[in-house]
Each structure stands twice: as structure tokens, then as C-alpha cells.
Amino acid sequence: MKLVTLIRLEFFKQKKGWVWLFLLVIPAGTTLAMFLDFSIRYDYLLKTARPGYSSWDLLLLENHRVLGWGMFLPMFIGIIFALLYQVEDSQNNWKQMLSLPVRHEGVYVSKFLTGLLLSAILILLNMLGLVLVGYVMDFPETVEWSSYLTYAGKQLLMVLAIAAIHNWFSSFFKNMIIPIVIGFAGVILSSIVIFQFPEGAKFFPYAFVFMVDGLVNQEFKELLTSSVILLLVSIIAGMWQFKRKDVL
Amino acid sequence: MKPLIHAEIYKLKRSRILLTTTILTLLALYQGWDFAKMGLSENEEEIFRGFLYQGSMAVYSWLVLPLICTIVLVMMARMEHSTNSWKQLLAMPVRRRHVYLTKLSVGMGIILYSLILLFLGMVVAAFSLGLESIPFLWMAKRFGILFISALPIVGVIFYFCYRFSHFAVPVLIGAGLAFPSMLVANSEKYWIFYPWDYPIVSSMNDVFDMGSMNIIMMIISLVIFIMGVSIGLLRFHTKDVL
After folding, report:
1. pTM of the predicted structure, to 2 decimals
2. Residue A79 and residue B28: Cβ atoms within 8 Å?
3. I want to staple B169 with a disulfide (CB 3.0 to 4.6 A). Which of A7, A51, A247, B164 is the partner?
């Protein structure tokens, strides 16, 4: 019961924060970019498409690979977590927060779940934006809800590892720029890993999301295992560290 | 202004800004080096241009440079914002203009350091791979244009760093605008309208055709830079320090 209260409290703290603007602006940007992309070169994309791909598949691939949503999503999630923790650090709220009769674990998990929820909103809005682009462009095929929902669901499963890792980093560092820098560096590294060592991508959490477009890359089960293992490891390690946090 | 620059450099010592810049730059160099090892061509200069340079630049101009600009400027602004040491700094007998311009020049100095590091790194990598004919002049030109093409990013981010005391705003702008840049750079007609893809287009012009837009791009870069910096300076003059 307390966990629900804590999560509600997190949303309360973000009420006037930048995170909402972020959650709206980024998907709005991807929608606009995809709309412009498709209105300029829809014919070209259809002509060069692999046989069997529908317009919806093309749209998904453009979003995921050419625009680079799959590559940049971990960075956005890192920023979300930094913003969630920044609220406490800037005023040193930890003192008040952790002297309340709440368990450290509860606070830690509530931060994680809030961040995950915000990430889910980000992913969902991006997906709905794509559907909107499809409607506006008047694609000949009917909308493939099932494949789009699978796409969103797979992304959410893949960001579990990143979310847990960034929850740990953001709780550990006092300077919130550092986890953001780690996120940036992770994305830069993942661009190298994906194109130079694709077989190593299943060990590198920042590259997970990129690998689950469902069309070009088919491996999912291995990635899911890695994602869940990393999730558990970083939640446990992070919590262990968080319990020892000095609140003064 | 000299003591101010000394003070900035002093503050840099304890921060991780230089370390971050170095690591991120070397990541790009590593990609180029790895790429060049595979590059099998008769012509040494072709390996250099087509693999070492192209491979490094592919990730450097797309991700590393825009993100370094964002991170460096945000971290330097945060040094003052986080503890509100503007109060102390601006209460001293220093001109505000000088404080502002010092922050800008040290920040740009670090970005320049990253470019020089990449340049020297490429030379070292070329020697270690046994490539001897390095087109120094061509490379210097490319790096010069790359620096100019990064100016609009610096101008915009710098403005937002000092306009808002929360680090989130410049970070979101820097990360958000860097994100679609590769997509826009693919467009032959429209890239000129999106300053965040200038580094990509200007450094990889074997891949992306600049046409005759070279000069226009530089003018736009300078205009955005000067506008961002001077509007920011006007505001900084009237900034409340409490």
C-alpha cells in the first residue's frame, strides 16, 4: 500500500517538473520527423522496400533504425531517471524523505517504477505518433495494431535493464550530470557495438532496444534473458547501496 | 580577464569534464581505427580517407560532437548553478561581461581540445596502421569547417545554460535535437534548415553532398552563434544573483 502512495508522491513532485514537457516534446518530434520523412519520400521508400514489407513495416523501420529511436531511447530513459532523482538532491530532500517511516527499499522501488511508468508513456506516445502518421498519410493497408503493440511491449521489456541501471546510477551520484553523461556514452558505444560487433549486442544493455524492431533483427529470447538478468542484478546491487546512503 | 580564466581552469581540475571529453573522443577514434583495419585498398590515402577518417567521423560528427558540446557547457554552467555561487562570483570586482565570455571561451576551448585530440589521434592511428601519406592539409580544412559547423550548437546550448538554472533544459534541447540529425542529413534539400546536422554534412561530404551550400552554412552557423551568445549576454547583465 505504501508503495502506491510513494509512487503517487513521485508524480506529485514532478507536477511542475520538466519531465512532462520532455515526455510530450520528444514523441511530438518523432511524429513530426516521420511525417515529413514520409511526405517527402514515401514513393522512394516503397520502391526500395524489401518485398513483403507493408507501409506500416516501413514506417516502423524508419522510426526505429533511420531516425534512431531504438538507439536513443536508452539515453532518454537516463534523462528521465536523472530528473526523478534531481528533485531530491537539489534540495537535499533525502533527509526528510528517509526519516519518514518508509523503508529504503520502498523508496528505491517506487523511484524505479515511476521511471519505468514514464518510460512506458514515452514509448507508447512514440508508437501512437507513428499510427497517427499512418492515418494522415492514408496508408493503403489497415493499421497493424498487433505488430505495433508488440513493438511497444518488446521495447518496454528491453528497457528494464537500462531503467534499473540508471536508477542505480542516479541514486548513487550526487551530481545528476554524471548518469546523463553515462547515458550519452552508452548510446555512443552502442552505435559502435551495433555496427561493428553485432554479436556482442546482447551483452550491452544500451544496444538492446535497437535489436528488437521485430523485422530485421529477430533475436528476442536471448535479449530478454540478458535484460531480466541485468534488471535483477542492478536492482539488488543498487538497493544494497541505497540502504547505506548517508542522508545528511 | 586573465585571473578569471585561471579560476575557470582551476575549477575544471576537480571536475570530470576533461575526462569525459577525452573518453568520448577516443571512442570515435576507436571506431575509425577498427574500421580502417578492415579497409583493404591499394591506395593508402584511400584507406585513410575512406575508412579511418570516415569511420571516426561517422560517430564523431553524429553523436560525439553535439553531445560533447551539450555536456561541457552544461557542466560548466552547473558548477555555478548548483551551489548558486553566482552570488560570490558576481559580487567580486569582476565585469559580468568578462565572466560570461570566460565561461564561453573555456567551454569552446574544451571543444577545440576534443577536435585536436581527434586530429592527433588519427595521425597516430594512421602511423600505427602503417599509412604514411596523410593528407594533413585536407584534414586541417575539414576540422576547421567542422569547428565552425559546431558553433550553432554551442550558441544555442550556451544561451539555455545561463537562461535556466535547471540543467534539464539545455540537456533536453541538446539531446532532443541531436536525435533526428542523421535522418535530416540524409535529405539533400532540407539539411540546411537543421543546424544540428551541420557537423555531419560538413565532415562527411564524401557521403553527403553539400552542393554550393558551404558558404551559406558557415554564415548561418556564425549568425546563430553570435545571436545566441549576445542575447544571452544581454540577459546575463541583468541577472539577479540571489
Report:
1. 0.89
2. no
3. B164
